Every structure is written in structure tokens, then in C-alpha cells.
Amino acid sequence: MPKIVDHEQRREEIALVACRVVAQYGFEQATFVRIARAAGYTTGMVAHYFDTKQDIVIAALRLILRRIEERLTPGGADGQAQLLAVLTEALPVDETRYIECAFWIAFWGQVPADKRLKRINGWLHREYLRLFERCLARGWSEWQQWPAATREQVLRSVMTFINGITASTVTSRGDWPAARQIAQLRLQLQLLHDWAMRSASPAALRASRRASA
């Protein structure tokens, strides 16, 4: 009997290989041929699933987003400790996450000159904000009592901080071991939480205390 091929699985496999190739060689050197060779396929086989290298990159971005969303979905109790553990999943603290983050950095370098990639990046940015907001709402019982402007500032600060740690680790990996990344994330979350609590009105704070009692 002929072998049954899972085409969606093969597309994902090629996309994951593209992540590794881009992370290792950079965007320009991650050619169609190099991606195909690393995947163990002919260029014709890869071309059967993707018309261009850009199509592979976009498929890889969507796949990484889905994997990160799965990792950012907490199990167990809510709370600050859980929030730190969940958001750590977005940092390059191990080899898999480092490859994903290195791929992101290479992608960002291509965005300014490509209108299609700009649109994709805008959509991805909104999706990441949604994921991080969900994490913050679960991790901090006070979240809904804070003014909308305060929540917006905290959310964007968290995302900016994680992007900064990502870029710093990819460019200077030896300076950013996992323990340092996590310690800095813990400090940033505490500073933002303290700032938001000071910024909230007394009425909001009283409502927060009653809700958590």
C-alpha cells in the first residue's frame, strides 16, 4: 500500500527546520536550498508545500505563535509565582526557545522593507499582547480593578521588556543565562505591580482587597 503522508505535519516539519536554519545562518543565508537540505528533502519537495522562502517564514511564525500560546496557558493555581513561571516560557531560557527567539530577531530585521511582513508583524504583535494580557489577568487579582490606562501601560511594558531580554540574549547569549533572565523578569514584574498599585485609586484598591479576601 502507498505510504499515507500527513501534509500538514510535513509543512510544520519544514517550518521548524526553517527556524533552525534562520537562527543559525541568518535570514539572507537561509536559502530555499539550505532549508530543503536541512529538512532532508529536495527543493522540489519543499516547493510542493511552499512557493517562496517568505511563505516558509510566515508558516514558521504562525507555528511558533501557536506553540507559545500553548506554553503561556497556565495550569494550576493563579498568582504571582505562577505568573512568573508562565511568562518565563516566552524567554529564550533553553535551546528550543533560543532558536525561536533567534528566528524572531532575524525576522524583525526584514520587516521594515517588506509590506507583507509588516502586516504579519502587526498581527503577531496584537496576538502577543492578547496572550500576555491573559497571563497578567490570571496572575494578578488586582488587574481588573486597575484603570484601563494603567493596565495598558503595564501590558506594553511587559511586552517591551520581554522583547528586550530576547534581543539581548540572542546577541549576547553568554551574558544572559536562564537564571539572570528569570531574575530580571521577576524584578520587572514586581516593579510594575508596585507602580500600578500606587497609581490605582483608593477605591480601586479597596475593591481589590475585598475581591481577594
Descriptive report:
The protein has ten helices and no strands. The chain is an all-alpha fold and 213 residues long. It folds into two domains: 71 residues, Tetracycline Repressor, domain 2, CATH 1.10.357; 138 residues, Tetracycline Repressor, domain 2 (Orthogonal Bundle). The mean pLDDT is 87.
Which keywords apply here?
single chain; 213 residues; mainly alpha; Tetracycline Repressor, domain 2; 2 domains; 10 helices; elongated
Q: What is the secondary structure topology, with strand pairs?
A:
Layout: H1 7-25, H2 32-39, H3 43-49, H4 53-71, H5 80-88, H6 95-108, H7 115-139, H8 148-171, H9 178-199, H10 202-212
Name given to the CATH homologous superfamily of the largest domain: Tetracycline Repressor, domain 2
List the total number of helices: 10
Determine the structural class based on helices, strands and strand pairing: mainly alpha
* CATH fold field value of the largest domain: Tetracycline Repressor, domain 2
Tally of extended strands? 0
The parts where pLDDT drops under 50 for at least 5 residues are none
- Tell me the span between the first and last alpha carbons: 65 Å
How many domain modules? 2
Q: Which sequence of SSEs, written as H and E, runs from N to C?
A: HHHHHHHHHH
Q: What is the overall pLDDT average?
A: 87
Spatial shape: elongated
Query: Which CATH class of the largest domain?
Result: Mainly Alpha
What's the gyration radius in Å? 20 Å
What's the architecture of the largest domain, going by CATH?
Orthogonal Bundle
Q: Helicity level, as a percent range?
A: over 70%
Strand percentage, roughly? under 5%
- Major sheet, described briefly? none
